[in-house]
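Exam revision sheet. Question 4 asks you to relate a sequence to its structure. Input first:
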Amino acid sequence: MTGQTQNSSDDVEGVVSAGTLDLCSHFAQGSFTPDGLRKLAVLRSRSDGVNKRVSYRPQELAKRLGEKKVAELMRRIETGESVRSLARELRVANSALTRMLRAQGTTVTKRKVNDATARQMAAEYEAGATMRELEMKFGLSHGAVHRALHRVGIEPRAQAPRTS
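Answer key, structure tokens:
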């Protein structure tokens, strides 16, 4: 059945669909993108006279949040709050929030730990504190703690073996 289309009562009126086997087959040429899938759909005349194409528009985070919320987020970033904490509060991905803030013209940088704090973290880590404890105490991401410890010459301890 490869290469054939199948019309059934499940097909949307006005659209010819590719067979499931065609779409899922490992023999299919190339990967399917949203544009490629759109090209598979062939418009036909509909009985109600509506024949317009449906355009795909991904939801932009800035539009979903609104101008006031975006302005507030930009202000909070400029006062030193982390993207990670704001993303957690908004329940969105860090990368999506970072991309939106950069598109709005805000400079988003990785949080850098000063030398005194890095030395304090190193002393606590050598005294037995875990990375997670340091993250929680200093309000930093795992990466920020790791970079700070590495900068002052501390190698991470080996991880405990996982039990199944």
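Marking note for examiners. Strands lie at 15-16, 42-43.
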